[in-house]
């Protein structure tokens, strides 16, 4: 099939030819005709399937065939595209400008992390197509700059990621301001219950399209896993990058923002060009890192899952999972960034003992065993789970590590504390993993006093969401009746 056969108008076909688009992808073939007809659409598609053009081209065509709304020369927002991240929003904006260069439409992008003054001016001048992240759009709506009363087409792109990032309530607030009569195009790579509920409530008799089910991994991607203890992961990564010159460009995925910074620093110290990208970086810093990576100035981009949304690199040779994700579908998303456009790709995963359950979940989802690389310098030594002490420490025994209570906190910034178990005399403290509420951290257990053994090591743990709180490490006990045991630093469980 060709783009001409999809009944696209000549100005769009001309722009696509200049972009070297020759054949539509499967999702474009299936999505463009019903979207042009005004149907609601649900697309289950991963990144890299061509879904941006699948919804952008029908929007451009439908709006260009109508008279611009708003009256008085000012354009009204007629299409709203919501995305989870700044990078993805900017990428979509760039694509729409390229596809629509020969039609009389105006588009604007609204994202956080940059001054909103220019965005206010764009909205005051008027725009036909608005691409936005939910948080900044809510701000501009509250200030009276964004009027959504004439929106005809709503696109929710990567809705599952918006859910992961805590945008579900913002999404609902925005949708409540839209006309009831509209077209909705909904894209999500996974279908958790909350997303299914949203689909059921928003879409009217939608056309359903599923491209490359999320449980599948491309055959052209060579996968492998290294079992390695956590302290040795960085050195293993350095060795691989120094010894394997076939790793021309790699995205390294970490679980946390602090982890991304730590890995990038370690690689840079080893004379490997690397930059980190995550939500704490400024927009300019993130854009510079992406530009350096795409033009080859940086060999390794270290990223969290959320920050990686919107990274569009056609010829990515390697994806490296420094930390395995606890959601198996995320693994499929990650490695799907290599092996695109018919090219081969390599996906390497590091697995410490505590991550073995994640690996099993991934293999269950993908219905395949990932080959294990056994011959490497840092084989896993820790093959035992962390000891679980009984719940009450007596004299001379091991004190149980009480699990911290759920600290009540608001979704942003509360500091709930749950205390870990204290060590008994002559014993050692249990780990005491205090778990905060949505934002609060927990307090680690206190080590036991006296006795010849070193006191236990308290361990704090952060609260869960993207704005996560902090945990406070418990004090170690007194070793041999005198010196103070070590304090564990808090474990940041936020993104």
UniProtKB/TrEMBL annotation:
Class of the enzyme per the UniProt entry, highest EC level: hydrolase
Q: Determine if Cytoplasm is one of this entry's keywords.
A: yes
Ranges of compositional bias, category Gly residues: 391-484
GO MF terms here are:
ATP binding; hydrolase activity; RNA binding; RNA helicase activity
Q: Tell me what reaction this enzyme catalyses.
A: ATP + H2O = ADP + phosphate + H(+)
Which InterPro entries has this protein been placed in? DEAD/DEAH_box_helicase_dom, DEAD/DEAH_RhlB, DEAD_box_RNA_helicase, Helicase_ATP-bd, Helicase_C-like, P-loop_NTPase, RNA-helicase_DEAD-box_CS, RNA_helicase_DEAD_Q_motif
Q: Would the keyword ATP-binding turn up in this protein's UniProt record?
A: yes
Q: Where is this motif: Q motif?
A: 1-29
Q: Which residues form the Helicase ATP-binding domain?
A: 32-209
Per UniProt, residues of the DEAD-box RNA helicase Q domain are: 1-29
Annotated region described as Disordered, given as residue ranges: 376-495
Q: Recite the UniProt keywords alphabetically.
A: ATP-binding, Cytoplasm, Helicase, Hydrolase, Nucleotide-binding
Q: Which Gene3D superfamilies match?
A: P-loop containing nucleotide triphosphate hydrolases
List the EC numbers from the record. Answer: 3.6.4.13
- GO cellular component annotations of the record: cytosol
**Residue ranges of domain Helicase C-terminal in the record:** 233-384
CDD domains registered for this protein in UniProt: DEADc (cd00268), SF2_C_DEAD (cd18787)
The family assignment reads:
Belongs to the DEAD box helicase family.
Report the protein name in the record. Answer: ATP-dependent RNA helicase CshA
Q: Which organism is it from?
A: Cohnella lubricantis
């Amino acid at each position: 099939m060709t783009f001409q056969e999809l009944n696209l108008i000549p100005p769009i076909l001309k722009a696509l030819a200049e972009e070297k688009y020759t054949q539509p992808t499967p999702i474009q073939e299936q999505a463009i005709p019903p979207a042009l007809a005004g149907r609601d659409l649900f697309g289950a598609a991963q990144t890299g399937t061509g879904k941006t053009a699948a919804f952008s081209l029908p929007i451009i065509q439908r709006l260009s065939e109508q008279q611009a709304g708003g009256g008085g020369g000012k354009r009204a927002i007629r299409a709203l595209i919501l995305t989870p991240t700044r990078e993805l929003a900017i990428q979509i904006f760039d694509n729409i400008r390229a596809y629509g260069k020969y039609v009389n439409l105006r588009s604007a992008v609204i994202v956080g992390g940059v001054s909103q003054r220019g965005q206010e001016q764009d909205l005051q001048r008027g725009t036909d197509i608005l691409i936005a992240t939910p948080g900044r759009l809510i701000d501009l709506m509250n200030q009276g700059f964004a009027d959504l009363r004439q929106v005809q087409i709503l696109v929710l792109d990567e809705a599952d990621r918006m859910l992961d990032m805590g945008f579900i309530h913002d999404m609902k607030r925005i949708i409540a301001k839209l006309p009831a009569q509209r077209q909705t195009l909904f894209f999500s790579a996974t279908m958790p219950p909350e997303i299914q509920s949203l689909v059921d409530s928003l879409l009217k008799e939608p056309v359903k399209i599923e491209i490359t089910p999320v449980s599948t991994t491309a055959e052209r991607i060579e996968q492998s896993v290294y079992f390695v203890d956590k302290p040795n992961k960085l050195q293993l990564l350095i060795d691989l990058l120094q010894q394997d010159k076939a790793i021309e460009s790699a995205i390294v995925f970490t679980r946390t923002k602090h982890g991304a910074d730590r890995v990038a620093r370690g690689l840079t110290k080893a004379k490997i060009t690397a930059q980190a990208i995550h939500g704490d970086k400024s927009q300019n810093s993130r854009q510079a890192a992406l530009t350096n990576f795409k033009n080859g100035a940086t060999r390794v981009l270290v990223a969290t899952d959320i920050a990686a949304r919107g990274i569009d690199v056609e010829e990515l040779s390697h994806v490296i999972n420094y930390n395995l994700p606890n959601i198996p579908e995320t693994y499929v998303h990650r490695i799907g960034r290599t092996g695109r456009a018919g090219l081969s790709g390599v996906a390497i995963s590091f697995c410490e003992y505590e991550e073995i359950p994640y690996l099993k979940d991934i293999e269950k989802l993908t219905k395949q065993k990932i080959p294990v690389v056994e011959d490497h310098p840092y084989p896993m030594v820790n093959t035992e789970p962390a000891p679980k002490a009984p719940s009450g420490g007596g004299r001379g025994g091991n004190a149980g590590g009480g699990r911290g209570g759920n600290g009540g906190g608001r979704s942003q910034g509360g500091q709930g504390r749950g205390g870990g178990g204290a060590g008994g005399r002559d014993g050692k403290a249990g780990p005491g993993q205090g778990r905060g509420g949505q934002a609060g951290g927990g307090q680690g257990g206190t080590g036991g006093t006296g006795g010849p053994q070193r006191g236990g090591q308290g361990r704090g743990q952060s609260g869960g969401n993207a704005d996560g709180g902090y945990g406070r490490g418990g004090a170690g006990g007194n070793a041999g009746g005198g010196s103070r045991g070590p304090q564990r630093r808090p474990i940041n469980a936020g993104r």
